[in-house]
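TOKENISE THE FOLD
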Amino acid sequence: MSTVQPLVVVEGLAKHYPVRDGLLIPREIGQVRAVDGVSFTVNEGETLGLVGESGCGKSTVAKLLMRLVEPTAGRVCIDGQDLASLAPDELRHARRALQIVFQDPQASLNPRMRAEDIVVEPLVIQGAQRGAALRRRAAELLEMVGLSAAQGGSYPHEFSGGQRQRLGIARAIAPKPRFIVCDEAVSALDVSVQAQIINLLQDLQRDLKLSYLFISHDLSVVKHISDRVAVMYLGKIVEIADKQSLYRSPVHPYTRALIASIPVAHPRLRQARHRLVGDMPSAMSPPTGCAFHTRCPHTADVCRSHEPMLIDQGAGRRVACHFAERFAPSLTTTSS
């Protein structure tokens, strides 16, 4: 029986930003560990959700995947090709396979360019010649994302927020990528518009056979669009599982607190025992041992002294917690 190779493989990805002090002779006084050893895979046609609090490193992961910033350690492979090993010309060619949709649709679009020029800009960068064929492709892309070809001559400020994000999506699919990073792609939009964009992304995924890394802090949106979900805390992944298992029976205490924070219809249904207290520690001086032990209600001595590894718990779930086996059976039993 042949095994299917993942489209995207991320191994030990890290990004540490130096912190310097001194005006005339700057010296390094520390490092901000924005991403600190992240590993995951994304399969063909799959959507992997990446969730966590603000500041946990989600957007830095997106930049590292696109090689918009250089990693401190680790590697990113797209279809078996290591992006870190590519020269600039090779990287430009490889980027046809992966694109990104940014959080702020207004800030990510050039205000001096017309819509039709924006959506075909990746093709021009890849060497496509301007002309009638490129204009036809622009009209086709606009219609694919729910806009009209007649809007191709308009500028970004003439569109609504949702329409601008559709432009960003059209630009992302222009070079016919296989993998798209959606970095908080709907967080700046109204709730009704969010639903429209999510439906558009799912339609495009089905029609164009796309794979997504969907980064968000909105757990309800992630549950709707994702096949699997990875939970980040302070630069590390603490749990990863298929969405049904993760939302029905979360294992890591941080995941349990996040799931419990999802708004429900009646206050009495909130899981107060999993309420998240305190603030996330500084990425410049993370706690020893388990990074979550300063906020965890189940902290023991081993949590303060030893960092837990991301261990396979079976059924595609991996958890970084010393007491994962203690939590998993009880939660599975109560949810059945």
